Automatic annotation (TrEMBL):
Species per Swiss-Prot/TrEMBL record: Amycolatopsis camponoti
Protein name, entry field: Aromatic-L-amino-acid decarboxylase (EC)
GO BP terms: amino acid metabolic process; antibiotic biosynthetic process; carboxylic acid metabolic process
Keywords: Antibiotic biosynthesis, Decarboxylase, Lyase, Pyridoxal phosphate
EC class (word): lyase
Length: 461
């Protein structure tokens, strides 16, 4: 054994204690850590040859890199709809690395059973029935890829061809309809060989990001064959929801696969006041939910659901002698793009056991309340104006004057350099804008006070 490995093995408890100490200090310092740390010039170190050992690696990380890590786990990071990691989820994630299970196969551990239990809990959380199966993936993008891959196989089934055997060319041109598709949708279509040009945008309702269902019906009626409809349960700019029940009802007249992007909006199902927004989610054929957003588990974690596991197996089935037979309950390596995968279910399992439906509902309610509070403050400020109602946890706004892309870019830089908070730019209804997304379990009213003060300071500066 390499001498450094042997040293670290013999002193492993001490090494883990040192890492725990560094992690504890980082978490304790989140209230004061800059939400964003604009990167500077970095001098790349040469590749280590002999190695310095684990303790020395910790020390070098602390000296060279730790100060440049953003406070994205903290309460005032409002960019990209980023959750944090609840205490229980963090503990589960540490154990995920400790046990280092590959839950792709069920031949050597009960890890797959834990994942199936967690997926079942999540399906119940979102009101999905027993006809849905699911699996953990890296994020909403890969959940979309998985769902649309199953949709592609469904299109092949309708056309009498096997896309999984003969390729996307056997299918020919396809049509994917959506009102306000997330950017991951054309990316997935490109990845899957259906092409970005397959996506056709359908008009949205006036002043909304929700699709006009009547226009969607017209688009479906103009087609010669089946299609894929991508609906939204929470858009990125304004958390707008398509009328899922009305869209699902169109299946009585038209033949289409309904894929619903509920990356973070799906968590509205936890709150009785907002659950009506997700009504009809159980009528989807495939569903996307991101867990490192509002479930507040560490990156990376998401789940995909579908009611057609048979088609999913046809797409992702992996036949090899060393993997054994594909049984009645397929191993996860036959259901997702990955063969090898970490036990992403464990942090989610920990957080659900620790806080339950009620604890996670409280996080959603508090985030919505804080977002609406920020919206009201911005609406009353002479420096800013709201661009849309604050429906759930995202505030979309712009300067009161001089709304140009250059001004928005300058504000994003100034806000990041201030360090109190971090926001991302966007474009809403053709106009450059800013977006503040509340999804971290740590965020409180005191944090909101600091965020608003920073925005006023930057606007006036």
């Amino acid at each position: 054994m390499h001498p450094r490995l042997a040293e670290d093995l013999n002193s492993l408890p001490e090494l883990l204690d040192a890492a725990r100490k560094l992690a504890g200090e980082a978490l304790a310092g989140l209230p004061d850590r800059p939400a964003a740390v604009p990167p500077g010039a970095v001098s790349r170190a040469p590749l280590p040859l002999g190695g310095a050992g684990g303790r020395a690696a910790l020390e070098e990380f602390s000296q060279r890199w730790e100060a440049g890590v953003a406070g994205s786990a903290g309460p005032r990071y409002l960019g990209f709809v980023t959750g944090g990691a609840t205490p229980a989820a963090l503990a589960g994630d540490w154990l995920t690395a400790t046990y280092d299970q590959n839950p792709a196969s069920g031949m050597d551990s009960s890890a797959q059973d834990l994942e199936r239990e967690t997926v079942g809990w999540l399906a119940e959380l979102f009101g999905l029935g027993a006809e849905f199966s699911g699996a953990f993936v890296t994020g909403a993008t890969m959940s979309t890829v998985t769902g649309l891959a199953i949709a592609r196989e469904w299109l092949g089934e309708r056309a009498g061809v096997s896309v999984s055997d003969d390729g996307a060319a056997a299918l020919g041109p396809v049509t994917v309809l959506s009102g306000s598709p997330h950017s991951s949708v054309p990316k997935a279509l490109s990845f899957l060989g259906m092409g970005r040009s397959a996506l056709r945008k359908v008009p949205v309702l006036p002043g909304r990001e929700a699709v006009d269902v009547a226009k969607l019906a017209e688009a479906l009626g103009s087609l010669d064959g089946p299609a894929v409809v991508v609906a939204n349960a929470g858009t990125v700019n304004t958390v707008d929801f398509d009328d899922l029940r009305a869209i699902a009802a169109l299946k009585q007249r038209y033949d289409f696969w309904l894929h619903v992007d509920a990356a973070f909006g799906g968590f509205a199902a936890l709150v009785p006041e907002h659950a009506v927004l997700t009504a009809g989610l159980d009528q989807a054929d495939s569903v996307v939910v991101d867990l490192h957003k509002w479930l507040n588990v560490p990156y990376d974690s998401a789940v995909q659901f579908t009611r057609r596991r048979d088609l999913q197996l046809r797409v992702f089935g992996n036949n090899a002698a060393y993997l054994g037979e594909i049984g009645e309950t397929p191993d996860f390596l036959h259901l997702t793009p990955e063969n090898s995968r970490r036990l992403r279910a464990l942090p989610a399992w920990f957080s659900l056991v620790a806080y339950g439906r009620d604890g996670h509902r409280e996080i959603v309610e508090r985030c919505v309340s804080l977002a609406r509070d920020l919206g009201a403050r911005l609406d009353g400020s002479p420096h800013w104006r709201l661009l849309a109602p604050v429906r759930l946890n995202v505030v979309c706004f712009a300067p009161a004057e001089d709304v140009t892309q250059d001004r928005i870019d300058a504000l994003v830089r100034a806000i990041a350099e201030d360090g109190t908070t971090f926001l991302t730019p966007t474009v809403y209804d053709g106009s450059p804008a800013l977006r503040a997304a509340f999804s971290n379990w740590r965020t409180t009213a005191a944090d909101l006070d600091r965020v608003f003060a920073a925005l006023e300071r930057v606007a006036a500066g």
